[in-house]
Amino acid sequence: MTDEKLAIVVLAAGQGTRMKSALPKLLHPLAGAPIVAHVLATARALDAARVLAVVRHERDLVAAAVEAELPGTVIVDQDDVPGTGRAVELALDALGDFDGEVLVLNGDVPLLNADTLAGFLAQHRGTGVAASVLSAHYADPSGYGRIVRSGDGAFDRIVEQKDASEAELALDEINAGIYAFGAGALRDQLANLTTDNAQGEKYLTDVIGLLRAAGSEVEALPVSEPWLVAGINDRAQLAETAARLNALIVRGWQLNGVTIEDPATTWIDLAVRIEPDVTIRPGTQLKGATAIATGAVVGPDTTLVDCEIGANAEVKRTDATLAVIGEGASVGPFAYLRPGTVLDASGKIGTFVETKNARIGRGSKVPHLSYIGDTEIGVESNVGAGSITANYDGVNKHRTSIGSHVRTGSHGVFVAPVTIGDGAYTGAGTVVRKDVPAGALAINVAPQRNIEGWVEQHRSGTAAAEAAAAAREARETDVD
């Protein structure tokens, strides 16, 4: 049910210069979704009455990503006054006379989950304090503001590293930058913020100091694991966070009955769905909305993007995008499945085969060294090794239709548009330019010519010429 007394503000206005990227920091992908999408998913899970995102850098791109992930989020534009305090001030203005709790989240802290925040909110509400600060104990707190507590362990203040004494620098409890405020107390103190500091910004941390100076109670609540509040500021931190999240995803699937032989080399996006008794072999990447049915074996060294894999299918050393692999089918090794590939039950796409916009029927096989594009193949047909569907005439793409129970010879070329009827055969090396009727054999009639002595005449001095001469002499000796 919607929590009518909860509003969530997501800070998403920063430029993220340390990423050194044309893409806004919050839109960098993490387990198949933008960084900010993970924060918004957590906000959704908390069922807040209002969710607001404060944007500025690359405003339209970030706002579009926010709307796509959590429709109905209120977009708040930060003005020329910099700082997190100003961002929250503008968000609070957009909330009007809201009088519940305001939870402030950073858009670049993607691993903080809903259960942790629900506990944080419950404790904040239970104590009745004006504000609560989420904190963490870091082995190396360098660069972070420190939580300073009084002798009895109660929260006293936040001190930034540049202002900290030697004793305060030794503290390992840091300010995670996640806050819960009573809306009234927050509104009162935001009005007192100034830009009278070295950076010329309105700092949200100053609100905590103002509340304490006014005699209000503030509490700091540490998280159970410090990585929960780790932010992403550069690509090294992005990689570290991705590895942490992937380890959690992989473990979750293992506990759900999926065999993952090498978690260190297996990467799985959040949207992927895997049924129990699937086996994932080393070096496998499962991306997008890929779904894998029970009993399937995927990998090693396989990348699947938005694919459907049927029960008991096997896909190894394959790169596939927007492909459907049927029950009991076999793909690879070294297959390349482009969008629109559908391999029906018990079918086969074999070694060094590329397919595109092709449907291969039940039990049909394309075993070796072939390109099958813009093609439909019926049931129980076999396409010979080295076959090509010549689907492009330089202007338009055309389709090839191969019927059921067809047998095509090796090294065939099918010049589309062309139809091979049910039960037809084609000879090895045939270039098919005309439709082949059902049950017919298509061949290109070209008698073989052997030009005697050609190698000795035209390649004299080579090993081949010497071998040919020796063979000729031996043959002539035998005749004599």
UniProtKB/TrEMBL annotation:
One of its GO terms (biological process) is lipid A biosynthetic process. Residues 9-138 form the MobA-like NTP transferase domain. It holds the Pfam family NTP_transf_3. Its EC number is 2.7.7.23, 2.3.1.157. It is found in: Cytoplasm. UDP-N-acetyl-alpha-D-glucosamine binds at residues 11-14, 25, 78, 83-84, 145, 160, 175, 233, 338, 356, 371, 382. Acetyl-CoA binds at A385, N391, Y392, S410, A428. Keywords: Acyltransferase, Cell shape, Cell wall biogenesis/degradation, Cytoplasm, Magnesium, Metal-binding, Multifunctional enzyme, Nucleotidyltransferase, Peptidoglycan synthesis, Repeat, Transferase. Pathway: Nucleotide-sugar biosynthesis; UDP-N-acetyl-alpha-D-glucosamine biosynthesis; N-acetyl-alpha-D-glucosamine 1-phosphate from alpha-D-glucosamine 6-phosphate (route II): step 2/2; Bacterial outer membrane biogenesis; LPS lipid A biosynthesis; Nucleotide-sugar biosynthesis; UDP-N-acetyl-alpha-D-glucosamine biosynthesis; UDP-N-acetyl-alpha-D-glucosamine from N-acetyl-alpha-D-glucosamine 1-phosphate: step 1/1. The active site is at H368. Its cofactor is Mg(2+). Binds 1 Mg(2+) ion per subunit. Residues 257-480 are annotated as: N-acetyltransferase. Mg(2+) binds at D108, N233. It catalyses: alpha-D-glucosamine 1-phosphate + acetyl-CoA = N-acetyl-alpha-D-glucosamine 1-phosphate + CoA + H(+); N-acetyl-alpha-D-glucosamine 1-phosphate + UTP + H(+) = UDP-N-acetyl-alpha-D-glucosamine + diphosphate. Residues 1-235 are annotated as: Pyrophosphorylase. Gene3D superfamilies: Hexapeptide repeat proteins, Spore Coat Polysaccharide Biosynthesis Protein SpsA, Chain A. HAMAP family: GlmU. PANTHER family: BIFUNCTIONAL PROTEIN GLMU (PTHR43584:SF3), NUCLEOTIDYL TRANSFERASE (PTHR43584). Catalyzes the last two sequential reactions in the de novo biosynthetic pathway for UDP-N-acetylglucosamine (UDP-GlcNAc). The C-terminal domain catalyzes the transfer of acetyl group from acetyl coenzyme A to glucosamine-1-phosphate (GlcN-1-P) to produce N-acetylglucosamine-1-phosphate (GlcNAc-1-P), which is converted into UDP-GlcNAc by the transfer of uridine 5-monophosphate (from uridine 5-triphosphate), a reaction catalyzed by the N-terminal domain. Homotrimer. This is Bifunctional protein GlmU. It comes from Agromyces sp. G08B096. The lineage of its organism: Bacteria, Bacillati, Actinomycetota, Actinomycetes, Micrococcales.
